[in-house]
Structures are given as structure tokens and as C-alpha cells.
Amino acid sequence: MARNSTAVILGFGILVCVIFFFFLSDDGRKILQWRLIHGFRPDSLLLLKGSREPQVPCYFIFGDSLVDNGNNNHLQTSAKANFAPYGIDFPQGPTGRFSNGRTYVDFLAKLLGFKRWIPPFATAREESILTGVNYGSGGAGILDMTGQNLGEVISLNKQLRNHRSIVNRIANKLGSKELADHHLNQCLYTVGMGNNDYLNNYLSSKYPTSQLYTPDQYATLLVQKLSHQLKKLYKLGARKIGVSEVGLLGCLPGVMGLNGSTCVGYVNDYVKLFNHRLGPVVEGLNANLTDATFILLPSGNSSVPGVTITNAPCCNVTSSGECFPNLVVCKNRTSYYFWDAFHPTDQVYKSAALSVYKVISTSILKEKARTWMSFDQ
């Protein structure tokens, strides 16, 4: 009797596994096959359990302080946000995010269906790298020298080198380069660079760049470098890539201070030169790398529902534009566009994420965009 019961249970278990295997994505099946050969670990079971939930299996993030979630914490740099009042509205408090709460990639990851924050490269563990890594670094730029006036930064070139090391770790984890490539081809990648190439390079008195290049020449240099870097990302397996435009830097409180309370027109003109060149670069990449999709992502929303204060930061800022540590901040944070002199509030990041997500859903994922109805506030 016991033998018969065991046989029934075993047979039922095999049937469940077969049904489960049938409904898995191709990527999930390959990972399951690899696990059956090499053995399961608790983290792989978690991966398989949730593999059908997100709209993409993984999300890799490249950028500057608008996405940094802790990579600068242990660098010798003044571009840090791992102290109060940063993170005052974030569940874990100050983490290195340049915000009172979440950044736009945190919101975007949730909209995509990820249950956890995408971890920073600095602390990414083996069990999390299959679902993505955040390489963002405050002060970083397209050019290696950008942001060095602040101290150590992780430029886009360095971020790509860090990604190469993650790609190798994924190949080791899955058992082959082919399985890694298949996995990485399905992932989403966003690249947001260029802000600091102006703020902490071309517009900075500590750099001779503006004496060496006209605004036209500099914009051309930046997009040429970025195009080359995006091709490197493609060679590392990226096939779904969103590239952000640079926002209107002349309207940042840290820049408007040069010109009272109005936007600085010539700074915005520099940015427009860059953005106008970025579109044709993205079109050229799509024409030449036909198995990939590159899209332009909006830099953010100029108006956000409920936000009425757009020319002043919520926190008291230092001469460099960051929040003074541990000082009282504004109470009506949802009414403020800017958290410090250069970075938006959680409220604005959320609005920006929704705009970016709608573009990604229709252009890259070919799916209907989800709404905030199911989003965990």
C-alpha cells in the first residue's frame, strides 16, 4: 500500500513538473534544464517561481545621479547621498539615492513587474544578478574626465566594464555563453548620460572644455562617443535599449542661481544641440543593428500634477547644491518639483517613470502599458 501511494505521489509530481515546464518561457526552460543537470539552489527556485511575472526577465541600468542607488557610497567623491535628509520617504532611509524617496528607475522597475529594487553593482550578489544590476554613478558622464572635479566617479566606460564582468558571471551561473546571450537578449537596458558632461565638465570653470570646443562641436563629440558605447552594450548582449535625452539643465535651481529665478537660455540651447543629434544616432543604430531596438526616452515632464513649486529645492542646500545633512526639509514635499538644487522629488520621478514606461511598453515590449492601480505605494 505504501509503495502504491509513493508511486502515485511520484507520478503526480512528474505530471506537475511537465505541465510547469510546458508553460515556462524559452528562457525559463533553459534555466530549468541547466538546474536539473547542475542542481537547484533556493535562489534559482525563487527565480523560476517569479520568471513569468515581470515583462522582461532582467533590467540593467546605466546612468548618473538620477539613477544611482548606492554605487557612490564608498567612493572618494563629494557626489554622495547616503545621509539624511536623503531617503526621508524611502522605506530603508538614506541609501545613496539622490531623492527624498525613490528614483525613476525604482518606479520603472515596479511597473515592469519586478518585486525587488534592482541592486547597485557595488553590492550585487550572485542570486540577484540574473534579474539585473544598476551601474549608475552620481557625477558620471559619457566622457571619462567628466565629474572628476567631484572626486571618484564611475564613467559610462567604467560602467560598461562592470557590466562585462556581470555578463561573465551570468555565463558562469547559467553554464554557457549561449545561455547567457539568450537571457541577456530578452532584458531591458536604459542609458541616461550627458547631464554631467555639461554640468560637471563643459559648464564648469574647472575644465578647459568650453575653450577647446564650440557648443556644436562638443555636442557632436558627445553623441559620437555615446554611439560607440551603445555599440559596446549591444556586443554584450543588449537588444532592448532605451536612451534618455538630456533634460533642460538651464532650469535647474543650481543653474538658475546664475540668472535669478528664470531658466538660463544658453544652457538649454547647448542641451538642445545634443538632443537634436541623439535622434539620428538612435535611428542609425536601428538601421545597422537590425536585431536590436533602440528608442529615445523622454527626459522628464515639465509639469506634474500637484507640483506647484518649480524653482526652489525642498531641502536647504549647500553651495554645491546638495542637501545640508540632517536639517529640516519642507513638509509639503509632493508640491515641490526639486528635492535639492539638481534632482527631482519622488513625486516627479514617479511621473517621469510613467512617461518612460509608456514609451518602452509600446516601442520595445510591444505590450499594453500597465497602470499604477496595482502598484505598491
Structure overview:
The chain is built from twelve helices and six strands. With 377 residues, it is α/β, with parallel strands linked by helices. The protein folds into two domains: 25-54, no CATH class; 57-372, Rossmann fold (3-Layer(aba) Sandwich). Strands 1-2-3-4 form a four-stranded parallel beta sheet, sandwiched between helices. Helix 4 crosses helix 12. The termini are far apart. Residues 1-52 have low confidence and may be disordered.
- List the helices and strands in order: HHHEHHHEHHHEHHEEEH
Largest sheet: 4 strands, parallel
User: What assembly state would you assign to the polypeptide chains in this entry?
Assistant: single chain
Mean pLDDT: 87
Assigned CATH class of the largest domain = Alpha Beta
SS field, number of helical segments? 12
Name the CATH superfamily classification of the largest domain.
SGNH hydrolase
* Percent of residues in β-strands: 5-15%
List keywords for this structure.
disordered N terminus, 2 domains, alpha/beta, 4-stranded parallel β-sheet, globular, 12 helices, 377 residues, Rossmann fold, two-stranded parallel ribbon
